[in-house]
Amino acid sequence: MAPSRIVRSVVLDASALTEASREGTQLRIQVHRSIRRGAEVYTTAATLTEVLRGHPRDALIYRMLNSLSVRVVDEALGRAAGERIGRREVRGNVTLDALVAELASSLPRPVVVMTADVDDITALVDDDVMVLDVAA
User: Fold this and answer.
1) Of all helices (H) and strands (E), which one includes residue 122?
2) Are strands 69-71 and 40-44 parallel, antiparallel or unpaired?
3) Is residue 4 part of a domain?
4) Residue 49 sits in a domain of what CATH number?
5) What confidence score (pLDDT) does residue 72 get?
6) Contact 10, 112 (CB under 8 A)
7) Is the peptide bond before 110 cis (omega within 30 degrees of 0)?
């Protein structure tokens, strides 16, 4: 994240949520630092389908969920995400990425999306949304 800008909104996709839920990771530290600085952290309810499997290891993700807001995927978000795919002419299975991008578009700026899927997310987000590669 750009150190000179105070990030107001952070969106985690599935890869970022999984990594941030693990104790001691740099991403977890970075997410909690953003929260302490006043940022709101979000994910979509659809993202939970990618990360929760009903196993005991889900406990780490549930603990992380206590620190963020989960946005419901309603009709308006679903329609807007689909239209975003059409406008951006993105190919492939990007439905969940489009939901993340659409959520980011609705949040107070500056916004950062944390992801390991940088190419697809970058193709879908608004030009003023920062994308942080969590795989780096």
Assistant:
1) helix 118-124
2) parallel
3) no
4) 3.40.50.1010
5) 97
6) yes
7) yes
Q: Has residue 114 been placed in a domain?
A: yes
What's the whole-model pTM score? 0.94
Q: Is residue 38 assigned to a domain? A: yes
Count of domains forming the chain: 1
- Domain of 117, in residue numbers: 9-133
Whether 51 is covered by a domain: the verdict is: yes
What is the C-alpha radius of gyration for the chain, rounded to an integer number of angstroms?
14
15 or 2, higher pLDDT? 15
State the DSSP string of 4-59.
TS---EEEE-HHHHHHHHSTT-HHHHHHHHHHHTT-EEEEEHHHHHHH--SSTTHH
The 10s digit of each residue's pLDDT in 12-27 is 999 999 999 999 999 9
